[in-house]
Every structure is written in structure tokens, then in C-alpha cells.
């Protein structure tokens, strides 16, 4: 009954962590259109048409040779009208983003041709108005079908390039957004994995603690059982406040581990000797929460719990260069531990497997986790290169 409730709570907490906002197709389309931005369209349009003006400037100067600078200025001013038509064309480009390609491409092509035709019409009307009201010399400029055809063709090419730039800007921003979403999704999956592994530890540790309390009650050690229950409550409050996916200073992780050892000290009394050595720079190294506690729990389970003699649990942490090394060892006498027991200690158990998976999830292949027997002691070693320090 207790196990079912605990697992249910863990799953519920995990669901809350993984909950993601959802939206309909309309929300998706609005977000899609947001990649086509007016500011970027205006910037690319201004750059393109100023470049075109620069190319045609010698032709304009030759066309108005012998006139005052006013004629050249008036002729060049039409480029701003072309920019305006291009921005109207951008509205059509943005409106067709969510359409299928077979519909979107013809509509955009039609918008390009229409913009070119309207711009050519405006040029001819503007030329006629200037000739009648400002500069009579403009009457000599061509205004026949040949001028209209060549102007329309030129405008189709330039407006076509302008439309392509609109799409390039949109595609670039959409690609950046997609890459960002992929990174966020990967990070969310990564955090979900760490959360799942973290919630896996609570039932595992809690079951062992409850079994210990039950054993104390059965053997008549009710006061010890009560003290262990109080310490267990305090420990669980501290552990549940920790962010499963966050990195914490090693000194905080060791503080949680010492709370766990205080719980076990109620059970084992003088049989449990605890030695913690953490170098000052190592204590500030950032590690996943509940990384050391499973190793200590394994040492207690297979060391102190299986021996009638006082045994030491030693935790050492140091930094060599930028690599953090954490070792957890227990004092299992050679004569009391068989090879089969050692193999079970070194490879099995939820705690050790959990540590391996969490190290791999956070650090990848850079981090190593080894277990070995050294002079009759079971030693678990974590080594993480390029360790980050807390501020």
C-alpha cells in the first residue's frame, strides 16, 4: 500500500514536471508568421533598391545630361515608391506563409508581376506629370510600349529578388527558431530524465529506511525507531526541496548525505564510524543532487549491515587540476566478504545504476564511475573533468 502511493506520487510529480503548454493550429500559424518580420523586410528592401539605384545611376545621369540636378533627383526619388510597393508585396508574402507551395508560389509570382506592372504605370504617369509641370525636357524621354516593356521586365526581376529575400529572411529566422526549439526540447528531455532518476531514489531510499524502522520496532528498540522516524522526516523535507535537475555545491550534497548517515547511526550506533574529508575547492564544485548518498547507502548496506565489528564509512573529495574526484569506501574485512558478495556490491542495486545513468545524463562520457575492491575495502569513485564551481 505504501509502495503504491509513493510510486503514484512520483509519477504525478513527474507529470507536472513534464507538462507542456499546448495550442491549436491557429496558434501555430500565428507563431509561424511571426518569423516574417517587417523590420527585416524593410532592411533588405532598402538595401536591395539602393543597390539597384547605384547600378542604374550612370544611365539616369546620361538620360538627364544637360539638365539641372533636379531632374536626376526626381528620377532617383521613384526608388522610394518602389520600396513602398515592395513592402506591400511583403504583406502578400507574409499572408501566404501557411499556404501549400502549389498555392503560395503562384500567388507570390502574381504579386511580383502586379507590383512590377503598377510600378511601371506609376513611372510613366510620374514622367508625364513632371514633363507638364516641372521640366519640359522630360517630354523627350521615351514613353512608348518599348519603355513600358523593358521597365516592367526590370521591375519583375528586382521585385522577384525582393520576394526571394523576404523568403530567405523568413527561412533563416524559422531555422534559428527551430534549432532553438530543438535545443529546448532536448534540454526538456534531459531534465525529464534527471527528474525521473531523482524521483526513483526517494522510494528506493524510503523503503530501506522503513524496513530499518520496522526492524527496530520488532526488536523492541522503540525509542530508536522514533528517533529514526524524526530524522527521516527531516531528511525527506530537505531532499524534496531540492531541484532534481539542478546542480548544487558538493558541500550541500554532503550535508544531505550526513543527514542520511544520522538516520543510519540511530540503527547501528557505535558500529558506524563516519569520516568526511572535502577539500575547500572541491566543496564548491557543482554536482547533481543525491549523487553521493546512494553510494554511501550502498556502503552501509554491504559494509556495516553485514559486519558485527565497527566499520568506517569514508567520503573524500578533491580537485586535481579541474577534475573533481569523489570516493566513498567502507571497511569490509577481507576475511568476511566473499568474491560473490563483492560482485553483487559492485554491479547491482538501484542506487549504483542510478548514479551511472545520472552521470551519463549530465556529463556524458566525460565523467567516469568505477567500483573496485582495494585492500579489503569496497571503493566507489566518481571523476568529473572540467568541473564547474559555485559562485
Mean pLDDT across every amino acid position: 76
Please give the share of residues in helix: 55-70%
Major sheet, described briefly? 5 strands, mixed
Measured distance between first and last alpha carbons? 44 Å
Q: Number of helix segments?
A: 12
Written account of the structure:
The protein has 391 residues and is of the alpha+beta class. Helix content is 67%, strand content 12%. It contains twelve helices and seven strands. It has helices at residues 2-18, 25-33, 38-63, 69-95, 101-133, 145-218, 222-240, 250-268, 280-283, 293-302, 339-347, 350-363, and strands spanning 247-249, 272-278, 286-288, 311-320, 323-330, 368-374, 377-384. A five-stranded mixed sheet has the order 2-4-5-7-6. The radius of gyration is 37 Å and the shape is rod-shaped. The two termini are 44 Å apart.
Topology diagram in text:
Layout: H1 2-18, H2 25-33, H3 38-63, H4 69-95, H5 101-133, H6 145-218, H7 222-240, E1 247-249, H8 250-268, E2 272-278, H9 280-283, E3 286-288, H10 293-302, E4 311-320, E5 323-330, H11 339-347, H12 350-363, E6 368-374, E7 377-384
Parallel strand pairs: 2-4
Antiparallel strand pairs: 1-3, 4-5, 5-7, 6-7
Helix pairs in contact: 1-6, 3-4, 3-6, 4-5, 4-6, 5-6, 6-7, 6-12, 7-8, 8-10, 10-12
Amino acid at each position: 500500500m505504501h509502495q503504491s502511493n509513493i510510486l503514484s506520487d512520483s509519477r504525478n510529480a513527474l507529470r507536472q514536471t513534464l507538462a507542456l503548454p499546448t495550442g491549436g493550429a491557429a496558434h501555430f500559424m500565428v507563431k509561424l508568421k511571426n518569423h516574417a518580420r517587417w523590420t527585416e523586410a524593410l532592411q533588405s528592401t532598402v538595401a536591395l533598391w539602393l543597390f539597384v539605384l547605384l547600378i542604374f545611376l550612370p544611365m539616369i545621369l546620361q538620360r538627364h545630361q544637360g539638365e539641372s540636378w533636379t531632374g536626376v533627383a526626381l528620377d532617383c526619388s521613384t526608388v522610394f515608391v518602389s520600396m513602398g510597393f515592395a513592402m506591400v508585396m511583403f504583406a502578400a508574402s507574409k499572408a501566404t506563409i501557411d499556404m501549400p507551395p502549389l498555392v503560395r508560389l503562384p500567388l507570390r509570382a502574381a504579386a511580383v508581376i502586379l507590383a512590377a506592372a503598377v510600378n511601371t504605370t506609376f513611372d510613366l504617369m510620374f514622367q508625364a506629370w513632371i514633363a507638364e509641370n516641372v521640366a519640359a525636357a522630360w517630354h523627350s524621354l521615351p514613353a512608348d510600349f518599348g519603355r513600358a516593356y523593358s521597365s516592367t521586365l526590370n521591375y519583375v526581376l528586382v521585385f522577384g529578388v525582393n520576394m526571394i529575400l523576404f523568403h530567405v529572411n523568413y527561412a533563416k529566422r524559422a531555422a534559428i527558431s527551430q534549432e532553438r526549439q530543438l535545443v529546448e526540447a532536448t534540454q526538456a528531455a534531459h531534465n525529464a530524465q534527471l527528474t525521473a532518476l531523482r524521483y526513483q531514489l526517494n522510494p528506493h531510499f524510503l523503503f530501506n529506511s522503513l524496513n530499518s524502522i520496522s526492524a527496530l520496532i520488532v526488536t523492541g528498540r522503540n525509542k530508536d525507531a522514533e528517533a529514526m522516524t524524526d530524522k527521516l522526516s527531516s531528511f525527506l523535507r530537505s531532499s524534496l526541496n531540492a531541484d532534481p535537475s539542478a546542480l548544487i555545491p558538493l558541500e550541500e550534497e554532503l550535508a544531505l548525505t550526513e543527514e542520511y548517515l544520522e538516520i543510519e547511526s540511530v540503527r547501528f550506533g557505535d558500529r558506524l564510524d563516519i569520516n568526511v574529508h572535502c577539500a575547500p575547492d572541491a566543496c564548491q564544485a557543482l554536482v547533481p543532487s543525491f549523487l553521493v548518498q546512494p553510494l554511501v547507502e550502498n556502503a552501509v548496506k554491504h559494509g556495516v549491515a553485514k559486519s558485527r565489528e565497527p566499520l568506517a564509512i569514508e567520503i573524500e573529495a578533491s580537485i586535481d587540476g579541474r577534475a573533481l574526484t569523489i570516493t566513498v569506501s567502507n571497511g569490509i574485512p577481507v576475511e568476511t566478504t566473499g568474491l560473490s558478495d563483492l560482485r553483487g556490491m559492485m554491479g547491482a542495486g538501484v542506487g549504483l545504476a542510478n548514479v551511472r545513468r545520472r552521470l551519463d545524463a549530465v556529463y556524458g562520457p566525460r565523467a567516469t564511475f568505477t567500483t573496485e575492491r582495494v585492500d579489503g575495502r569496497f571503493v566507489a569513485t566518481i571523476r568529473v573533468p572540467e568541473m564547474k564551481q559555485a559562485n
